[in-house]
């Protein structure tokens, strides 16, 4: 099965309304140039803040799953007839915990929500503590059937946990989608590409990582095939990056590299 994805590598702004405008421009251009089956936007695309922004401002930016930003993205998905995957800050009704969820939504071409995933492994690393403002989700993404293949999904830092991608692959995911806001830093570009390539190779799947860009984030979005070959990539600037996926490639690779079939889980320990 052949399909076209477009990764919208964009710099998200603090104002969700500005980002809706950016999303529509991206969808319009992508529809005219590439006719995608699915568009992927970065982690927390709804609103992103400069380093040093106050906690109260960040928390107050969150919206519900039926808020104006999500509804706006759903309308755009229907208008352009394309599946859309995007990140947001989800408001939590919890009198004992004021943190938000870092949530990714999957919306179909009719503008209906198919799945919402709350990031489970939070970025408490490299001097950052995401858990100060974000509440972890309680379960991994359950892969979904789509017109263009079975999709698995995880978010950013979760690529550092091989179990997450393996869980998706064992449940039949053919294409792993990774919205991300990969913070710049020492050797972070090397880690980004190496981890993505490893997860694709060890699970013999496609992995599409759509990153934010700008002063704080790396950019360098990349899509890797089941043999670890980069099939599309971006630089540090805003860009629309087309990715052409052929799921028959997975069967072809697994025939000569049957590592998934050769697993011996009875020997493994957590």
Could you walk me through the main structural features you see in this protein, from its secondary elements to its overall organization?
The chain is α/β, with parallel strands linked by helices and 270 residues long. It has one domain: Carbon-nitrogen hydrolase (Nitrilase/N-carbamoyl-D-aminoacid amidohydrolase), CATH 3.60.110.10. The chain is 26% helix and 26% strand. The chain has 6 helices and 14 strands. Strands 5-4-3-2-1-14 form a 6-stranded mixed β-sheet. Strands 8-9-10-11-12-13 form a 6-stranded mixed β-sheet, with helices on one face. Strands 6-7 form a two-stranded antiparallel sheet. A hairpin with a 2-residue loop joins strand 8 and strand 9. Helix 1 packs parallel to helix 3 (68-80). The radius of gyration is 18 Å and the shape is globular. The model has no long low-confidence stretch (mean pLDDT 97).
């Amino acid at each position: 099965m052949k399909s076209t994805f477009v990764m919208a590598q964009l710099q998200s702004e603090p104002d969700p309304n500005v980002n809706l405008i950016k999303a529509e421009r991206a969808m319009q251009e992508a529809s005219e140039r590439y006719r995608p089956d699915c568009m992927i936007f970065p982690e927390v695309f709804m609103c992103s803040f400069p380093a040093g922004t106050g906690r109260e401002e960040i928390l107050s930016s969150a919206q519900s799953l039926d808020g104006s930003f999500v509804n706006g993205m759903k309308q755009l998905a229907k208008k352009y007839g394309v599946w859309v995957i995007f990140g947001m800050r989800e408001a939590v009704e919890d009198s004992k915990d004021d943190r938000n969820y870092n949530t990714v939504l999957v919306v179909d071409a009719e503008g209906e929500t198919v799945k919402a995933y709350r990031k489970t492994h939070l970025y408490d690393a490299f001097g950052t503590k995401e858990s100060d403002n974000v509440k972890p989700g309680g379960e991994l993404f359950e892969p979904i059937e789509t017109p263009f293949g079975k999709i698995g999904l995880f978010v950013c830092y979760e690529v550092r946990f091989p179990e997450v991608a393996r869980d998706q692959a064992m449940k039949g995911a053919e294409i792993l989608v990774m919205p991300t806001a990969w913070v710049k830093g020492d050797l972070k570009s090397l880690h980004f590409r190496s981890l993505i390539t490893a997860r694709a190779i060890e699970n013999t799947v496609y992995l599409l990582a759509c990153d934010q860009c700008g002063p704080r984030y790396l950019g360098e979005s990349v899509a890797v095939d089941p043999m670890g070959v980069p099939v599309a990539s971006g630089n540090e600037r805003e860009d629309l990056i087309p990715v052409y996926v052929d799921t028959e490639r997975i069967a072809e690779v697994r025939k000569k590299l049957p590592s998934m079939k050769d697993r011996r889980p009875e020997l493994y320990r957590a």
